[in-house]
Amino acid sequence: MKMIKYGGIALKERDFKEGRVIVFRDAPKAKYLWDCGVAISRFLKGLKEGKIIGRRCFRCSRVMVPPRMFCEVCFRGTDEWVELSDTGRVNTYSICYVTWDMIRIKEPQIPAVIEIDGASRGMGILHLISGVKPEEVHIGMKVRAHWKREEERTGSIRDILYFEPI
Amino acid sequence: MGIIEKINRNNDIVFWKGEIPVEFLYTAGVAGERFYRELRDSGKIVGSKCSSCRSIYLPPRIYCERCFTETDEFVETETPGEVYTYCIIKYDNEGNRMEREEIYAFVRFPGVTGGLIHRLGEISPEEVNIGMKVEPLFKENRVGHIDDIIYFKPYREK
To answer: What is the pLDDT of residue A2?
Structure first.
Protein backbone atom coordinates (compact mmCIF):
# COMPACT_ATOMS: atom_id res chain seq x y z
CA MET A 1 0.00 0.00 0.00
CA LYS A 2 1.36 3.32 -1.06
CA MET A 3 1.25 6.17 1.45
CA ILE A 4 2.25 9.66 0.49
CA LYS A 5 2.58 12.66 2.76
CA TYR A 6 1.43 15.89 1.20
CA GLY A 7 3.36 18.84 2.49
CA GLY A 8 0.89 21.18 0.83
CA ILE A 9 1.49 23.50 -2.08
CA ALA A 10 2.45 27.07 -1.29
CA LEU A 11 0.76 29.66 -3.51
CA LYS A 12 2.07 33.18 -3.93
CA GLU A 13 0.26 36.37 -4.91
CA ARG A 14 2.05 36.05 -8.26
CA ASP A 15 0.46 32.68 -8.98
CA PHE A 16 -2.98 34.26 -8.68
CA LYS A 17 -2.10 37.35 -10.72
CA GLU A 18 -0.51 35.41 -13.54
CA GLY A 19 -3.35 32.91 -13.68
CA ARG A 20 -1.25 29.88 -12.82
CA VAL A 21 -3.93 28.58 -10.53
CA ILE A 22 -7.69 28.40 -10.94
CA VAL A 23 -9.25 30.54 -8.28
CA PHE A 24 -12.78 31.40 -7.21
CA ARG A 25 -13.47 34.81 -5.73
CA ASP A 26 -16.54 35.68 -3.76
CA ALA A 27 -17.83 38.02 -1.09
CA PRO A 28 -20.66 36.59 0.96
CA LYS A 29 -23.13 39.11 2.36
CA ALA A 30 -22.42 38.96 6.06
CA LYS A 31 -25.18 41.25 7.31
CA TYR A 32 -26.32 41.06 10.87
CA LEU A 33 -28.75 42.54 13.36
CA TRP A 34 -27.57 42.34 16.93
CA ASP A 35 -30.13 42.65 19.69
CA CYS A 36 -28.51 44.89 22.30
CA GLY A 37 -30.44 43.50 25.24
CA VAL A 38 -31.74 45.50 28.22
CA ALA A 39 -28.44 46.89 29.53
CA ILE A 40 -26.71 47.91 26.31
CA SER A 41 -29.97 49.32 24.91
CA ARG A 42 -30.15 51.67 27.87
CA PHE A 43 -26.45 52.47 27.52
CA LEU A 44 -26.81 53.43 23.85
CA LYS A 45 -29.91 55.53 24.57
CA GLY A 46 -27.91 57.30 27.26
CA LEU A 47 -25.17 58.10 24.75
CA LYS A 48 -27.76 59.68 22.50
CA GLU A 49 -28.68 61.98 25.39
CA GLY A 50 -25.01 62.68 26.06
CA LYS A 51 -24.80 60.53 29.19
CA ILE A 52 -22.70 57.53 30.10
CA ILE A 53 -24.85 55.11 32.06
CA GLY A 54 -23.65 52.33 34.36
CA ARG A 55 -25.28 49.79 36.60
CA ARG A 56 -24.78 49.15 40.30
CA CYS A 57 -24.87 45.90 42.27
CA PHE A 58 -26.03 46.47 45.86
CA ARG A 59 -24.24 43.44 47.25
CA CYS A 60 -20.68 44.16 46.04
CA SER A 61 -21.32 47.89 45.50
CA ARG A 62 -19.58 47.80 42.16
CA VAL A 63 -20.67 50.22 39.45
CA MET A 64 -20.26 48.59 36.07
CA VAL A 65 -19.81 50.24 32.72
CA PRO A 66 -20.83 49.22 30.11
CA PRO A 67 -23.83 48.25 32.22
CA ARG A 68 -24.92 44.65 32.68
CA MET A 69 -28.03 43.15 34.18
CA PHE A 70 -26.20 40.39 36.00
CA CYS A 71 -23.37 40.61 38.50
CA GLU A 72 -20.87 37.92 37.68
CA VAL A 73 -19.19 38.31 41.10
CA CYS A 74 -22.30 37.99 43.30
CA PHE A 75 -24.19 35.79 40.84
CA ARG A 76 -27.34 37.87 41.13
CA GLY A 77 -29.16 40.54 39.16
CA THR A 78 -27.82 44.07 39.35
CA ASP A 79 -29.99 46.71 40.99
CA GLU A 80 -29.77 50.28 39.86
CA TRP A 81 -28.97 52.55 36.91
CA VAL A 82 -26.25 55.10 37.59
CA GLU A 83 -25.52 58.18 35.53
CA LEU A 84 -21.76 58.58 35.30
CA SER A 85 -19.56 61.49 34.41
CA ASP A 86 -18.17 61.77 30.90
CA THR A 87 -14.63 62.03 32.23
CA GLY A 88 -12.19 59.31 33.11
CA ARG A 89 -8.62 58.08 33.14
CA VAL A 90 -6.61 56.13 30.62
CA ASN A 91 -6.30 52.54 31.81
CA THR A 92 -4.34 51.31 28.83
CA TYR A 93 -3.73 52.47 25.29
CA SER A 94 -2.11 51.64 22.01
CA ILE A 95 -0.67 53.73 19.19
CA CYS A 96 -1.74 52.35 15.84
CA TYR A 97 -0.21 53.23 12.50
CA VAL A 98 -2.33 50.64 10.72
CA THR A 99 -6.14 50.74 10.57
CA TRP A 100 -8.36 47.75 11.28
CA ASP A 101 -8.49 46.94 7.56
CA MET A 102 -4.70 47.08 7.25
CA ILE A 103 -4.26 50.51 5.72
CA ARG A 104 -1.07 52.34 6.72
CA ILE A 105 -1.69 55.81 8.19
CA LYS A 106 0.64 58.72 9.01
CA GLU A 107 -1.37 60.19 11.88
CA PRO A 108 -1.77 57.35 14.37
CA GLN A 109 -5.04 56.31 15.95
CA ILE A 110 -4.85 55.91 19.72
CA PRO A 111 -7.38 53.37 20.98
CA ALA A 112 -7.59 53.27 24.75
CA VAL A 113 -9.58 51.82 27.59
CA ILE A 114 -11.00 54.72 29.57
CA GLU A 115 -11.92 54.09 33.20
CA ILE A 116 -15.03 56.20 33.61
CA ASP A 117 -15.23 58.44 36.70
CA GLY A 118 -17.96 57.21 39.03
CA ALA A 119 -17.59 53.58 37.97
CA SER A 120 -15.58 51.03 39.93
CA ARG A 121 -11.87 50.65 39.33
CA GLY A 122 -11.01 48.84 36.15
CA MET A 123 -14.47 49.50 34.69
CA GLY A 124 -14.27 51.33 31.42
CA ILE A 125 -14.99 51.53 27.75
CA LEU A 126 -12.77 51.16 24.73
CA HIS A 127 -12.57 54.34 22.69
CA LEU A 128 -10.21 56.62 20.80
CA ILE A 129 -8.00 59.35 22.20
CA SER A 130 -7.42 62.48 20.18
CA GLY A 131 -6.27 66.07 20.64
CA VAL A 132 -2.95 65.00 22.12
CA LYS A 133 0.46 64.05 20.75
CA PRO A 134 0.98 60.29 20.79
CA GLU A 135 4.11 60.61 22.93
CA GLU A 136 2.22 62.59 25.58
CA VAL A 137 -0.43 59.94 26.20
CA HIS A 138 0.13 58.09 29.46
CA ILE A 139 -1.63 55.67 31.73
CA GLY A 140 -3.65 57.57 34.31
CA MET A 141 -4.09 60.60 32.04
CA LYS A 142 -7.35 62.45 32.72
CA VAL A 143 -9.64 62.66 29.72
CA ARG A 144 -13.08 63.96 28.83
CA ALA A 145 -15.49 62.74 26.15
CA HIS A 146 -15.79 64.92 23.06
CA TRP A 147 -19.39 64.43 21.98
CA LYS A 148 -21.00 64.77 18.61
CA ARG A 149 -23.49 67.58 18.35
CA GLU A 150 -26.83 66.54 19.84
CA GLU A 151 -28.74 66.51 16.55
CA GLU A 152 -26.13 64.22 14.98
CA ARG A 153 -26.19 61.57 17.71
CA THR A 154 -27.73 58.23 16.76
CA GLY A 155 -27.41 56.10 19.89
CA SER A 156 -24.03 54.64 19.04
CA ILE A 157 -20.66 54.45 20.76
CA ARG A 158 -19.52 56.83 18.00
CA ASP A 159 -21.75 59.53 19.52
CA ILE A 160 -18.58 60.17 21.48
CA LEU A 161 -16.13 61.19 18.78
CA TYR A 162 -13.09 60.66 21.01
CA PHE A 163 -11.71 61.37 24.45
CA GLU A 164 -9.42 64.36 24.85
CA PRO A 165 -7.15 65.40 27.71
CA ILE A 166 -8.63 67.72 30.31
CA MET B 1 -33.69 42.86 41.18
CA GLY B 2 -32.47 43.70 37.73
CA ILE B 3 -32.89 40.27 36.35
CA ILE B 4 -36.65 40.72 36.18
CA GLU B 5 -36.36 44.01 34.32
CA LYS B 6 -37.77 43.63 30.83
CA ILE B 7 -38.35 45.67 27.72
CA ASN B 8 -42.12 46.05 27.50
CA ARG B 9 -42.51 48.45 24.61
CA ASN B 10 -41.45 47.50 21.10
CA ASN B 11 -40.01 50.95 20.51
CA ASP B 12 -37.56 50.44 23.35
CA ILE B 13 -35.82 47.57 21.61
CA VAL B 14 -32.42 48.64 20.40
CA PHE B 15 -30.57 46.65 17.79
CA TRP B 16 -27.32 47.15 16.02
CA LYS B 17 -27.24 46.76 12.26
CA GLY B 18 -23.93 45.89 10.68
CA GLU B 19 -22.20 44.27 7.80
CA ILE B 20 -18.97 42.34 8.02
CA PRO B 21 -16.84 42.70 4.90
CA VAL B 22 -15.80 39.18 3.97
CA GLU B 23 -13.95 38.30 0.81
CA PHE B 24 -12.32 35.07 -0.10
CA LEU B 25 -10.20 33.37 -2.72
CA TYR B 26 -10.80 29.66 -2.99
CA THR B 27 -8.45 27.26 -4.69
CA ALA B 28 -9.73 23.83 -5.41
CA GLY B 29 -6.68 21.85 -4.32
CA VAL B 30 -4.61 19.29 -6.21
CA ALA B 31 -7.47 17.17 -7.53
CA GLY B 32 -9.93 20.05 -7.91
CA GLU B 33 -7.38 22.02 -9.92
CA ARG B 34 -6.99 19.07 -12.29
CA PHE B 35 -10.78 18.75 -12.60
CA TYR B 36 -11.26 22.40 -13.56
CA ARG B 37 -8.25 22.40 -15.91
CA GLU B 38 -9.54 19.39 -17.80
CA LEU B 39 -12.95 21.01 -17.94
CA ARG B 40 -11.46 24.23 -19.30
CA ASP B 41 -8.81 22.90 -21.65
CA SER B 42 -10.34 19.76 -23.06
CA GLY B 43 -14.01 19.85 -22.11
CA LYS B 44 -13.77 16.63 -20.15
CA ILE B 45 -15.27 15.65 -16.83
CA VAL B 46 -12.52 13.77 -15.02
CA GLY B 47 -12.61 11.67 -11.90
CA SER B 48 -9.73 10.17 -9.96
CA LYS B 49 -9.16 6.45 -9.88
CA CYS B 50 -7.79 4.40 -7.03
CA SER B 51 -5.18 1.97 -8.31
CA SER B 52 -5.91 -0.38 -5.43
CA CYS B 53 -9.73 -0.77 -5.37
CA ARG B 54 -10.42 0.69 -8.84
CA SER B 55 -13.01 3.14 -7.48
CA ILE B 56 -13.43 6.32 -9.51
CA TYR B 57 -14.24 9.42 -7.53
CA LEU B 58 -16.11 12.42 -8.87
CA PRO B 59 -15.36 15.21 -8.10
CA PRO B 60 -11.80 13.83 -8.01
CA ARG B 61 -9.90 13.63 -4.76
CA ILE B 62 -6.29 12.82 -4.05
CA TYR B 63 -6.78 9.87 -1.76
CA CYS B 64 -9.08 6.89 -1.64
CA GLU B 65 -11.22 6.95 1.46
CA ARG B 66 -11.58 3.16 1.35
CA CYS B 67 -7.91 2.20 0.91
CA PHE B 68 -6.18 5.33 2.25
CA THR B 69 -4.01 5.24 -0.85
CA GLU B 70 -3.22 8.00 -3.25
CA THR B 71 -5.56 8.15 -6.23
CA ASP B 72 -3.00 9.19 -8.81
CA GLU B 73 -4.81 8.36 -12.02
CA PHE B 74 -7.29 10.74 -13.59
CA VAL B 75 -9.85 9.24 -15.95
CA GLU B 76 -12.54 10.78 -18.11
CA THR B 77 -16.03 9.80 -17.03
CA GLU B 78 -18.19 8.03 -19.55
CA THR B 79 -21.32 9.72 -20.78
CA PRO B 80 -24.25 9.60 -20.75
CA GLY B 81 -24.77 10.27 -17.09
CA GLU B 82 -27.90 9.49 -15.22
CA VAL B 83 -30.23 11.69 -13.16
CA TYR B 84 -30.01 10.23 -9.68
CA THR B 85 -32.29 12.80 -8.09
CA TYR B 86 -33.53 16.27 -8.99
CA CYS B 87 -35.20 19.35 -7.63
CA ILE B 88 -37.25 22.08 -9.30
CA ILE B 89 -36.12 25.51 -8.13
CA LYS B 90 -38.73 28.27 -8.02
CA TYR B 91 -37.12 30.75 -5.65
CA ASP B 92 -33.66 32.32 -5.85
CA ASN B 93 -31.08 32.69 -3.06
CA GLU B 94 -32.81 35.79 -1.73
CA GLY B 95 -36.20 34.10 -1.60
CA ASN B 96 -37.63 35.89 -4.65
CA ARG B 97 -39.86 34.03 -7.06
CA MET B 98 -37.92 33.33 -10.24
CA GLU B 99 -39.38 34.09 -13.64
CA ARG B 100 -38.22 30.77 -15.00
CA GLU B 101 -38.04 27.62 -12.98
CA GLU B 102 -34.74 25.80 -13.00
CA ILE B 103 -34.11 22.12 -12.58
CA TYR B 104 -31.09 21.01 -10.59
CA ALA B 105 -30.10 17.40 -10.63
CA PHE B 106 -27.52 15.13 -9.10
CA VAL B 107 -25.98 13.47 -12.12
CA ARG B 108 -24.07 10.21 -11.76
CA PHE B 109 -21.89 8.49 -14.31
CA PRO B 110 -21.36 4.79 -15.07
CA GLY B 111 -18.96 3.15 -12.64
CA VAL B 112 -18.29 6.36 -10.75
CA THR B 113 -18.56 7.07 -7.02
CA GLY B 114 -20.11 10.47 -6.49
CA GLY B 115 -21.37 12.78 -9.21
CA LEU B 116 -22.11 16.37 -10.06
CA ILE B 117 -24.90 18.70 -9.08
CA HIS B 118 -25.88 20.80 -12.07
CA ARG B 119 -28.71 22.37 -14.02
CA LEU B 120 -30.78 20.42 -16.54
CA GLY B 121 -31.69 22.10 -19.79
CA GLU B 122 -33.70 21.50 -22.95
CA ILE B 123 -36.34 19.76 -20.88
CA SER B 124 -39.43 20.90 -18.98
CA PRO B 125 -39.92 20.07 -15.30
CA GLU B 126 -42.79 17.68 -16.15
CA GLU B 127 -40.57 15.59 -18.39
CA VAL B 128 -37.71 15.01 -15.95
CA ASN B 129 -37.52 11.61 -14.39
CA ILE B 130 -35.11 9.78 -12.16
CA GLY B 131 -32.86 7.50 -14.16
CA MET B 132 -33.05 9.50 -17.38
CA LYS B 133 -29.86 9.70 -19.41
CA VAL B 134 -28.21 13.10 -19.73
CA GLU B 135 -25.10 14.57 -21.33
CA PRO B 136 -23.24 17.83 -20.69
CA LEU B 137 -23.38 20.85 -22.98
CA PHE B 138 -20.09 22.79 -22.79
CA LYS B 139 -19.46 26.46 -23.36
CA GLU B 140 -17.26 27.63 -26.20
CA ASN B 141 -15.03 29.86 -24.08
CA ARG B 142 -14.28 28.01 -20.92
CA VAL B 143 -12.57 29.55 -17.89
CA GLY B 144 -12.26 26.68 -15.43
CA HIS B 145 -15.54 26.93 -13.58
CA ILE B 146 -18.41 24.50 -13.05
CA ASP B 147 -20.49 26.84 -15.26
CA ASP B 148 -18.27 25.84 -18.19
CA ILE B 149 -20.94 23.19 -18.41
CA ILE B 150 -24.01 25.21 -19.40
CA TYR B 151 -26.33 22.41 -18.38
CA PHE B 152 -26.97 18.71 -18.80
CA LYS B 153 -29.43 17.89 -21.56
CA PRO B 154 -31.34 14.72 -22.39
CA TYR B 155 -29.07 12.23 -24.12
CA ARG B 156 -29.88 11.37 -27.70
CA GLU B 157 -28.09 8.50 -29.38
CA LYS B 158 -26.19 9.58 -32.42
So the answer is: 57
ipTM: 0.74
- pLDDT tens-digit readout, B87-113: 999 999 889 999 999 999 999 999 999
DSSP string, A21-42: S-EEEE--EEEEEEE-HHHHHH
> Per residue in A139-149, pLDDT tens?
999 999 999 99
Contact A34 B18 (CB under 8 A): yes
B54 vs chain A: nearest CA distance in angstroms?
14
E-strand ranges in chain B read 15-21, 24-27, 46-49, 56-58, 73-76, 81-91, 97-108, 113-114, 116-120, 133-138, 149-154
The 10 Å Cβ neighbour count of residue A162 is 19
Q: Per DSSP, which regions of A75-147 are E strands?
A: 76-77, 80-84, 87-93, 96-98, 104-116, 124-129, 142-147
* B residues 89..108 contacting A (CB < 8 A): none
Inter-chain touch A28–B28, beta carbons under 8 Å: no
Q: What is the pTM of this model?
A: 0.68
